């Protein structure tokens, strides 16, 4: 009996092992094939080749990216290969007994049956392999649990129909073609049984198998990768998938990744059949070995178990050692019940604001706009301050250069110039921004040069040119009266800007073109250098890798801000977000280069929202250091320890110490640690005056420019943005206001919260004694205020509070246009002094209106999918257009809440 079992199991084990070996060798080609098959889904266009995909994977994901999904691929190979090849001969044998023949069609039928059965049993491993190959950061077990919890256990058999059809066609074409071609070559070419015959036959089988199965393989991959339930899937079944692919992408799309498929399937087929033929020659030896081993089954099983354990341990240690080099620890925790009412929750928490969808970015000149003429001279400038001061200052400089008809020299960012030892490959401006893009984008507005001419540069070093220290929000008349005469006289003037702006935020109505010029500078010309943009895109992709939106949050907890304007607690933001209905597993990106107080003050907020992440948890140290470039090492400024004394010196001091007994010397002072001399707490207990920044402090300040630029990019691209400590009452722009203005210009209908601090403080004071379990009416008040801040009410409040100090925080109505129909009455809101708070935008040009209407038709069906969903509590209704809650309503709600308190 043991001999019969061994004779049946040996082909299965040998075929499975040889198929696993072939899979391990060709797995990178399989990854390339899947990536090629999923490009330009639903679109026509030029396709990226296999070489470009290979370069992108190696550059972004490293060499490890070519082996994503290897474990489920090997597991599937052992089972699939053993069943597919092991069942072919028995099927052909039974067909021979039943029909008395083994012609070519019998071979095709035998291969089709064995391939279909093997695929039906191993389809879950194929689904896991394809999902992991699309750059998933989860392991095989976690991916299986995620699919089962989010999409149901049946989702593991997605695409099983096309997969069985592909496997049947592949097995039938491969095995039947191999078997038949070998017989034909033996009869016609008189080839002998051996290596050359097997090689030619396997190559023919691989080519035929690729041509037959490439379309089915592409359809199978598309079906396995789509997420969601039956109601929101792109493809209903294999036939629908094929129809949609041919309709939207063309007939050639069925062979996307065809070359990669052949490059993988050809060698795999050749290796499989060559090894299979060699194993057949050794079959007698294998049966003999099995007969000997069956005599002592316990030893055989123990030997096999020990061998598998050793191999598994070695593979595990190898992968752990390799993957720990640049480990990124962030993995979002997903609520299993998040999918319940997902469409409804998405609209209420992440959907666009309908009342603002008519606003579109449009900063082009409206009237006649001449190109720069003969220049009156050169303007060079030094900009002091951090990231939130640099951007408004550059925009004002360009507007001033246009006003004075001057040539602008690329401004010097002192925050990077003062640092010692930053990378030599960057200059001051190019440390953050792209110089070439800045010059080219403004060629029709202002003439910009990288440096002064040589003779003027020499004169500048001798301080022969007038220099102006510009106060914050200087008027245009100041430049016309004071600066322009000096510019015409000396041909060069210098400006020192230190407060985050050098021109009035609100300009007269006849200077609207200068406001649009500011927008073109801020949102089109000032682009971050390519390294920052690439890493920013990578962070956004990692945040959305789970298929869910994310919220960007800027705490605003900087030392200089809190020193003059009090403090704020981050858990209060968590209470507001929870009142809005954001679940505890919401992905929140913490922006800002500095969080005063460190990770300690983030503990309460992280306890409420476990997926609170920042750049350090989404990027490896190598990726972050690449942004900084090569930097020279800095000498430590800690006090040096005294030199160690030798034994002879200690004895000599002891002898000179005098008569005994004598008092013991004081104990040696404890050495200073590095963290005790870094930052404000290194001097605050020793001096009343802050010392000059050290070399390390200056370098860290320049690094903050990079980190703020990276966080700015991620915050602008976020699905929602919530400012923390914002609008502190100072006259300076801050990080959050710049992000709010950029999002308002680029996508006005995106969810950008603009909370009023006075209202929020009143709300918090009303629940001070029961903050973590607020009453129901309090939650309604919070939602009403925050929903109102998303829409027109928030824009009116922002126009009153932010625009007088910083134009870039509220670039309306000068830099926007409206696509509403002429029949729609535009709401115009004016302030007490006659200034326009909302409305007054120009109508968008026809080319923009037509393009937007076409895009809206494309997405209309997707928006209407959730209209039939049952509504939840009416408290979730958005109230973008509702007015602010008055003080009377606020007090009445609190009193009513006290009457209805169930705890009384």
UniProtKB/TrEMBL annotation:
Compartments where located: Membrane
Pathway it works in: Glycan metabolism
Record keyword Mitochondrion present: no
Top-level lineage group: Eukaryota
Signal sequence range: 1-24
InterPro entries registered for this protein in UniProt: GDP-Fuc_O-FucTrfase (IPR019378), MCP_dom_sf (IPR023395), MCP_transmembrane (IPR018108)
Membrane topology (UniProt): Multi-pass membrane protein; Single-pass type II membrane protein
TM regions (residue ranges): 195-216, 300-319
Bias kind Basic and acidic residues: ranges: 884-895
Location of region: Disordered: 855-904
Keyword set, alphabetical order: Carbohydrate metabolism, Fucose metabolism, Glycoprotein, Glycosyltransferase, Membrane, Signal, Signal-anchor, Transferase, Transmembrane, Transmembrane helix
GO biological process, one term: fucose metabolic process
Primary localisation category: membrane
Compositional bias segments (type: Acidic residues): 864-883
Presence of keyword Glycoprotein: yes
GO molecular function: glycosyltransferase activity
One Gene Ontology CC term in the entry: Golgi apparatus
Mapped Solcar repeat ranges: 10-94, 102-184, 193-282
Family listed: Belongs to the glycosyltransferase GT106 family.
Protein name (record): O-fucosyltransferase family protein
